[in-house]
Amino acid sequence: MSNPLSNDAINESSFSNYPANRNPANKGMGCLLPLFLLVLATALVLYFLKGSNTSSLPIAQQFMEAADTSTNKITTLKTDSAIHESIEIELPNNSVINGSSEGIELHLVEYLNNQKDTINKNRWFNFDNLSFENNNITLAKSSMHQVQNIVAILKAYPKMKIKIGALRDKTNDEAADLRLTEQQAQAVSAALKKAGANSSQIVSAEGYGSKYAKVPSNAPLTERMKDRKISINIIEK
């Protein structure tokens, strides 16, 4: 299809049917009016097309496009979870927890309820609302809601047994990375038990350092943070 605003579409033949004895001023207005209407119609079509394309995108994608145009590209877990809907998640013991529509709680429950989804030692579920204080080994108070949710899930599925794993981004000090992740995994395990989890359901808590980090150590912090994870692996359900 040819462009409606191309030179081929607007040429002298477009105005050849105007009477030769028409007033020059009226002739000028007559020439401009079709062009004006064509430009206006094209602008309206482009405007509505742009609007429909944006609205059809998932909310997360719309948000990331908006973030990409900003000078401050924030990609932290808090920013990500802020765009997700808060939902109620029903557990088999008739209890209900509040979590995110894309949070670890919902993914765990769906996995536990699906009998066809078998145990996989390589399948990890990442905490999405867990953070540490400045010393990096003490859980922040804001993390307690998700900790309590995991405890509720453990109680609702008494056969469930888990392993906790902590991963770190590369910092050029592998020994320090390993030590830190071991402390973080133990901190999460301790918090779960303190919140009422049956200790027999938490089989182990391990730190893997930067062993599985994919982003290089010289990358920006916002990129390296993607390799910082506290995760749960289900070993029995």
Give the SSE layout:
Layout: H1 24-55, H2 59-68, H3 77-82, E1 86-90, E2 96-100, H4 104-113, E3 125-126, H5 144-156, E4 161-167, H6 174-194, E5 202-207, H7 221-224, E6 229-236
Parallel strand pairs: 4-5
Antiparallel strand pairs: 1-2, 3-6, 4-6
Helix pairs in contact: 5-6
Task: Give the gist of this structure.
The protein is 41% helix and 14% strand.
Beginning-to-end CA distance, first to last residue = 59 Å
Count the DSSP helices.
7
**Chain-averaged pLDDT:** 77
Rg for CA atoms: 29 Å
Order of the strands making up the biggest sheet: 3-6-4-5
The proportion of residues forming helix, as a percent range, comes to 40-55%
N-to-C SSE string, H for helix and E for strand: HHHEEHEHEHEHE
- What overall form do the CA principal axes indicate? extended
- Report on the biggest sheet: 4 strands, mixed
State the secondary-structure class.
alpha+beta
Number of strands: 6
Oligomer: single chain
Portion of residues in beta strands equals 5-15%
User: Low-confidence spans: pLDDT under 50, at least 5 residues?
Assistant: 1-25, 47-82
Description:
Helix content is 41%, strand content 14%. It has 237 residues and is of the alpha+beta class. The chain has a 4-stranded mixed β-sheet, with helices on one face. A two-stranded antiparallel sheet has the order 1-2. A hairpin with a 5-residue loop joins strand 1 and strand 2. The chain is extended, with a radius of gyration of 29 Å.
